[in-house]
Design brief:
With about 160 residues, the chain is α+β, with helices and mostly antiparallel strands. It has one domain: Molybdopterin cofactor biosynthesis C (MoaC) domain (Alpha-Beta Plaits, 2-Layer Sandwich), CATH 3.30.70. It contains four helices and five strands, in the order βαααββαββ. Strands 2-3-1-4-5 form a five-stranded antiparallel sheet. Strand 4 and strand 5 form a beta hairpin. Helix 2 packs antiparallel against helix 4. The two termini are about 30 Å apart. Its EC number is 4.6.1.17. One of its GO terms (molecular function) is cyclic pyranopterin monophosphate synthase activity. Catalyzes the conversion of (8S)-3',8-cyclo-7,8-dihydroguanosine 5'-triphosphate to cyclic pyranopterin monophosphate (cPMP).
């Protein structure tokens, strides 16, 4: 737009990729979280390594990292970014009924990595669902959200 605001609409009001070409490259980090809820016996099988499909936590971690690197291919109008770091942590929920997922992604670029972190967390959760659905079809993915970001023009932010 002519007033300098970033928008996903072109001059005719059609969806378009935002031009970030004039923005400076800065260090940016985002962390997203999600929880996959399951029966306690499903969680116990995962934590004991007794799942028929092997180490589902390691597979979900790798799937999340790989997904972060493919975000621009999955989300329309999302910029391809050089990811310098992507980490996915998977821990049993304190209530014993699920796995808490945290994905942290870093880049040095002209736009943030919130979408990459959200994609990593969601794909890690979906991978867990896929690998465990044979024993627990009632699992649910909940509370996918950005919990922190740093860098860029808008600065640092953390969820309350």
């Amino acid at each position: 737009m002519s007033d300098g605001r970033l928008t996903h609409l072109d001059a005719e009001g059609r969806a378009a990729m935002v031009d970030v070409g004039d923005k400076p490259a800065t260090s940016r980090t985002a962390t997203a979280a999600a929880t996959i809820r399951m029966r306690p016996e499903t969680l116990a099988a995962i934590l004991s390594g007794a799942m028929p499909k092997g180490d589902v936590l390691a597979t979900a971690r790798i799937a999340g990292i790989m997904a972060a690197k493919q975000t621009a291919s999955l989300i329309p109008l999302c910029h391809p970014l050089p990811i310098s770091s992507a980490k996915v942590a998977l821990d049993a929920s304190p209530d014993g009924q699920g796995i808490d997922i945290r994905a942290t992604v870093r880049t040095t670029g002209p736009t943030g990595v919130e979408m990459e972190a959200l994609t990593a967390a969601s794909v890690a959760a979906l991978t867990l669902y896929d690998m465990c659905k044979a024993i627990d079809r009632g699992m649910s993915v909940e509370r996918l959200r950005v919990i922190a970001k740093s860098g860029g023009r808008s600065g640092d932010w953390s969820a309350p």
